[in-house]
Amino acid sequence: MSGAAPASLSEAQIRERVFGALRKVAPEADPAAVDGSADLRRELDVDSMDFLNFLIGIHAATGIEVPEADASKLRTIDEIVHYLAARLPPGAPNPLR
Q1: The dihedral sign for the CA sequence 74, 4, 61, 53
Q2: Which DSSP string corresponds to 14-78?
């Protein structure tokens, strides 16, 4: 899915799409084993190019672009899920509120 962000996504759907994008750059990543609060780059040995490709995958999966200025602030799955939930279109239910 690409283009505009969907009108509504649950936290589980956001997390599922994030892990889908992560598996493309780190195929060994097991969603059940990845600690949501752990630094992805350290835990999965993801380099900066892989992380950039991961963010591109998130955009493709959710329609929500992560600007370069924000990318360095996003280190964990939990941070990424919260970031995406906060950027759902106006009027869309935010699953984290």
Answers
A1: negative
A2: HHHHHHHHHHHH-TT--TTTS-TTS-HHHHTT--HHHHHHHHHHHHHHHS----HHHHTT--SHH
Over the stretch 49-84, which tens digit does the pLDDT of each residue have? 999 999 999 999 999 999 989 999 999 999 999 999
- Domain 11-86, architecture per CATH: Orthogonal Bundle (1.10)
Domain ranges of the chain: 11-86
Q: Would the pLDDT of 1 be above 80?
A: no
Instruction: Compute how many other C-beta atoms are within 10 angstroms of the C-beta atom of residue 29.
Output: 18
